[in-house]
DNA sequence: TGATACATAGCTATGATGGCTACGGTCAAT
DNA sequence: ATTGACCGTAGCCATCATAGCTATGTATCA
């Protein structure tokens, strides 16, 4: 048996997530992470290849948590997809408010950490199912992309402070949600389910 | 009269924008910028306070250019807002495809460069006008936010490669555009203009 | 016209910080 | 004792940023 680990990878990633939230990407230095887990910076390199990999691990953990929340929010597969979609949207937004830096990290890749497409797809699966129920099988993918684009865009702009000038953000959120839902519900209508 | 400038601020910002596109934020080092304008790094600090300010200036210039394009795409204020909205969406997306790194920089703040809210609002003004024509005065702001959220979210995800797995991105874009436009057109209908 | 003063551009040199590597010491399990 | 995992010290290199110097050219005044 190897010597039991003193500082696990989970600890490192957790510390990294905390630091990311408190100080942004700039605050996420290897020294800061090391200090938080009670170790010197070079020791981290036994668990993590380099800083970019740590960032990728943080993004991955964040996506997994978001996916779990969205999945829980989606709920009963046989229920009305419209309230379920609303729960999903709120769950994602709540999550973004709790971990804004993590949310930004996940939904603003392209630069450093390659987007973890698989994990993201998994967390989107529930939305795809709801969209299928609303807009019909043939429009499920397009509707999902429209919905997720709106949702992530809205939350990103909200986090960025783009909505600070006037207006009620909550109302705008409900407005967009309602209009999108009803726009997708054409699928229900077409199939005589409405 | 002071000595005429040899390397202007515009030159520096322009070089910075080019470097941003070719090498991302990491490639945007002061030395690289200096080398590109034919100068040593310390000399840049005569024009720019520090690297963050340079990044902010780059973001500002990018927003201004985007705003000009959107404004041009919006076109005739008295025309049908629906095709105008489509032109605006395409103009923004085209711009993002031309300068992906710049687009990301502008629409992913919160971290480093504080969002230039004023410039952004200005570039959104045409959309606000179109949204007002479509959804009515009382829903103009909400509709604008829904539309811009969808648009920036869609483009961001597209740039991040989130749409690589299956499906036709072009079709998804047109789908979202059409559904949103028709969802907003309730305003037209309510006022008996449709 | 010619000399001086000054503002500005640019440089070299230097400090500080952070990522990362090399290597060595320590301790537990075998 | 040997092995292997863990962690530290020391050090390298790149980058941002600053301090202080030199040079150049314009402007002003004799």
UniProtKB/TrEMBL annotation, chains A, B:
InterPro entries: Homeodomain-like_sf, HTH-type_TetR-like_transc_reg, HTH_TetR, MT1864/Rv1816-like_C, Tet_transcr_reg_TetR, Tet_transcr_reg_TetR-rel_C_sf
GO biological process: negative regulation of DNA-templated transcription; response to antibiotic
Cited SUPFAM superfamilies: Homeodomain-like, Tetracyclin repressor-like, C-terminal domain
Keywords carried by this UniProt record: DNA-binding, Transcription, Transcription regulation
Superkingdom of source: Bacteria
Record GO terms (molecular function): DNA-binding transcription factor activity; transcription cis-regulatory region binding
Keyword Transcription: yes
This protein's record includes keyword Amino-acid biosynthesis: no
DNA-binding region extent: 29-48
Domain HTH tetR-type: 6-66
Protein name: TetR family transcriptional regulator
Native source species: Agromyces bauzanensis
